[in-house]
Amino acid sequence: MSGLPQILVEFMKKAKAFISRSKRGVVAIIIEDDTGDFNTKIYTRESDVEKTDYTSVDIDYISKVFLGNPSKVIVERISAGGEYDGALARLKNKTFNYLAVPGIASEDVSSIAAWIKLQRKEFKKTFKAVLPKITSDHEGIINFATDDIKVGDKTYSTAEYTARIAGILAGMPLSESCTYHALTEVESITESATPDEDIEAGKLILINDGSKIKIARGVNSLVHIAGDKTEDWKKIKTVDSMDMVSDDIRSTFEDNNVGKVINSYDNKIIFISAVNAYFKTLVKEGVLYDKYNNHAEIDVEETANWLSQRQNISEWADDDIKQANTGSNVFVMADIQWQDAMEDLKFKVFL
Predict the structure, then answer these.
(1) Phi, psi values for residue 127, rounded to 5°
(2) Which of 55, 249, 318, 351 has its CA 20 to 30 A from that of 66?
(3) Residues 275, 296 contacting (CB under 8 angstroms)
(4) How far apart are CA 333 and CA 294, in angstroms?
(5) What would the pLDDT profile of 85-133 be if each residue is shown by its tens digit?
(6) Domain for residue 128, yes or no?
(7) How far apart are CA 40 and CA 53, in angstroms?
(8) Taking the complete model, does pTM exceed 0.85, yes or no?
(9) Residue 96: domain span
(10) What is the residue-wise DSSP string for 21-82?
(11) Neighbours of 95 (CB within 10 A)
């Protein structure tokens, strides 16, 4: 039992700091630049960026990321006209929330999207990317789709302004959504003629409300719901919450349990109790819905599937299955509801 109370301490630390951590996410940006001879630079402040390392264009991209106030910006440099494979290989084992490639050509967008999907599916990485004009139908891909973004004397393409959007999303606390977030530096855009249809099609667009340019709605590119996914998976805020909870549970389990704790029933219950305490704190922080019984428990179905491949359990009760020896495996399920931000108002006034 040695060391087991520590897992509760770690979960509570993470839960109490959840919102403050969420609003200080990390952006990775891939740039094509022959000015320097480095591969990777990591910055926590814009003032740390050496202007002699980049062209003025790339300095501007990095500056646009920092406008969103992320905690860190990872710059991966490739040679002009080079391949992205090396930069992606370096990023694979780094920690970041959003990727942007502001100089990307349209023919390369799908390969970056495919890499993000692979990392999320096969390696359980919680990477996401802001990419220009891609019908990806995936919660990890933000399909930015606004053209001709005028800032001062410069008009940016959709691809170029993905750097700014990635910075906004990484710096957005999970107590808020990016819906109606104003981009005060933007003077004009090519406005969508069909904004509602664009949003339904999984496009993140900017709109002009007559006084400012702002994000229309915080949606990712997911359109078609299948399997265990629900409508909530279309929302950037919800997926960011899911990813952060997933990272917290996985990292805490790996750091405090893997190889350190025997897989007894009592120890499984201790781990699950710590997760449930974590959930309760997330309710207080406004991450999980406060009127729902958010809880984790031993996954009876998955445990039974594993046991049935080794012995006859047809006469076993659920409690027998829960307490069975499962080797090194811990099968847990959670039933939770995410707390959304206020975005839609229907207000009837009777006279």
Answers:
(1) -70, 150
(2) 249
(3) yes
(4) 11
(5) 999 999 999 999 999 999 999 999 999 999 999 999 999 999 999 999 9
(6) yes
(7) 11
(8) yes
(9) 24-171+179-215
(10) HHTT-EEEEEEE-SS---SEEEESSGGG--GGGS-HHHHHHHHHHHTT--SEEEEEEE-TT-
(11) 15
